[in-house]
Specification:
Helix 3 crosses helix 10, helix 5 packs across helix 10 and helix 8 crosses helix 10. The protein is an alpha/beta fold and 448 residues long.
């Protein structure tokens, strides 16, 4: 028995250098994940659903959007007190001009934004976690009748609140931003405002984790019930791609490797590492048919963003007026949600955000040598701009594979592998002392 244990121990130490990395849970992140609480998520959702209407254009200060914004802001401020003042929050007002469709006249609206500054003052990176606060009925212009919006998107805002509560207890080198958007149902107005502002002010947003409809586990029509699977939507060809980017993409055939797709793969790996009984499904679309989410304005502005969503949607409880018809209850009410499922989706978000916030930034100038014919692959890169990595992973997958299949660890800034560059895709990510990884970066060709 001692001999077997010795062999296994030796294997554990040597394996990460040349093969797939063994599962490693950072103790601090794992502890944070365990704090995500289904009862807290339920309470936030029920309060949000109790406001008569959270329609963007409902300006009722007691029972409408303004009241809901005040509630979310008050929770952020409450968490700010327990964070010793590090988490700050504000209701950021702006004017949306009339579009002749869903905004019939210029309207003053607002996002609720909480900021947890990073401890590394030399590191400007941000991780943004979001959901949308506004709700709707079947008629998107109905700003009067009851629209509880428990799941769409009370679930996303509840998740954002819970992550702010937990993550504000810890210091991260990277800044975390928590946002409850307005105007999603009226045309992504709040997200467009903030994404445009981020671009104009040169924010270094590393990732946007947008959560929209994440609290139900049972589908309409098919009656599938499964609280162990969630979806992550990511763009294929970047919406903000310029001609130079298109030329590089075509030269290396990286249509399936946009930065947002790398973020989605990251969420799948990290989320499944920390959250038991949860599978993250990669959906190779920006969003669903006939629908759109607040991640899109960020992608249009060149930021890396994804949408989180439940796997099995129930359309009896989305975009429907609250009513009973033919014995069927319609409407987006809290009683049709699965808060244990929402807990797991929130935990996937938390693990992903915390891992990114603790990691060094991406490696720079990642290159693959294509100057000659060879059945080996040579890669090189430079150290990240922010943070001090312990080493690097070179990732590899077959061209037909959806996720990275092998990881090779090195502490150098180059690596030669006995695998043909013609048969595999490769990428590089930094690895910090605590084991957290950066997003993966695909190499560009090093030519003659």
């Amino acid at each position: 028995m001692r001999y077997i244990l010795f062999i296994l121990t030796a294997f554990t130490f040597t394996f990460p250098v040349f093969g797939q990395q063994l599962i490693h849970r950072d103790p601090e992140i794992y502890k944070l994940v365990q704090q995500v609480n289904a009862d807290s998520l339920k309470k936030y959702t029920e309060v949000l659903a109790s406001f008569k209407s959270r329609h963007t254009l409902n300006q009722d200060a007691k029972n409408g959007m303004i009241a809901a914004q005040n509630y979310v802001n008050s929770k952020f401020l409450e968490f700010g007190i327990t964070s010793n003042g590090r988490l700050t929050s504000k209701i950021e007002e702006f004017v949306v001009p009339s579009d002749g469709r869903r905004i019939v006249a210029d309207a003053k609206v607002a996002n609720v934004v909480a900021l947890l500054p990073g401890t590394n003052k030399q590191d400007p990176r941000m991780i943004l976690i979001s959901g949308h606060l506004d709700s709707r009925n079947k008629d998107v212009m109905d700003a009067v009748n009851a629209s509880p919006g428990a799941n769409d998107d009370g679930s996303g805002v509840a998740l954002v609140l819970e992550l702010a509560r937990i993550l504000s207890q810890i210091e991260f080198p990277t800044t975390l931003v928590f946002v409850a958007f307005t105007g999603e149902e009226q045309g992504l107005k709040g997200a467009t405002y903030l994404a445009n502002k981020a671009k104009s002010e040169s924010w270094k947003i590393e990732a946007v984790l947008n959560n929209d409809i994440v609290g139900n586990s049972t589908s309409s029509e098919t009656n599938i019930s499964n609280n162990t699977v969630m979806r992550v939507f990511s763009e294929t060809i970047p919406l903000a791609e310029d001609e130079q980017g298109a030329s590089v993409r075509r030269s290396i055939n990286s249509d399936n490797d946009s930065p947002s797709r790398q973020l989605a793969r990251y969420i799948k790996e990290v989320g499944e590492r920390y959250v038991d009984q949860m599978k993250v499904k990669l959906i190779y679309r920006n969003d669903r048919f006939l629908r759109g989410g607040d991640q899109t304005p960020f992608m249009k502005n060149g930021f890396t963003a994804v949408r989180m969503s439940e796997m099995n949607e129930n359309f009896l409880h989305q975009h429907e007026n609250v009513r009973v018809e033919n014995g069927i209850q319609y409407g987006d009410l809290p009683e049709f949600m699965d808060f244990e499922y929402l807990r797991k989706v929130a935990a996937v978000n938390l693990a992903s955000a915390a891992s990114l916030a603790k990691s060094a930034s991406i490696p720079q100038e990642v290159r693959i040598d294509v100057r000659g014919l060879s059945n080996a692959t040579s890669l090189s890169w430079k150290a990240p701009q922010y943070g001090s990595p312990k080493g690097y992973y070179v990732l590899m997958r077959e061209t037909s594979a959806s996720v990275w299949e092998k990881k090779f660890y090195t502490e150098e800034t180059n690596l030669k592998l006995p695998y043909s560059k013609d048969n595999y895709f490769f990428a590089v990510q930094t690895v910090s002392e605590n084991g957290t990884e950066s997003l993966a970066v695909l190499p560009t060709p090093l030519t003659r």
